[in-house]
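WARN no homologs supplied; continuing
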Amino acid sequence: MLNMVFLMNSWLSSFNQPGLCITVAVLLHYFLLAAFTWMCLESVHFYLALVKVFNVYVPKYILKCCIAGWGIPAVVITIVLIINKDFYGNGSPSESNPFSNFCWIQENIVFYISVVAYVCLIFLTNTAMFITVLLQIQSVKSRTQKRSRFWKR
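OK structure emitted
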């Protein structure tokens, strides 16, 4: 959906309908955040599968993942819309603004908080999960090598 909204964005913004442009910008923002949220959930699942292998039963796990994957971005978008729906749009057409024919977030501070900070938080979470998984794999590997040396004696 993110790709489809992105590809149709310029065409839809050419109609010069503010409501349509706000809708397209909201959808683009939502699907972008949802993609990154699902990437974060994949890293959490990876952690649960490789580090917390035993005794990890989460009731209604898929339902909780779906609520987080689709719900967290919806909360962010709702907050932005409640504050001011005019944060979304296609700006004023000018030669100095190359994105004037593109429906997206117009305020820099909103962009930095609701996109850049969100992506950085997910990147840090994924990095922490990755390092934890690598350390777990390394410890299992070293334990296996110690056992094999013991049995070879």
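Residues 108-152 form the longest helix (45 residues).
OK
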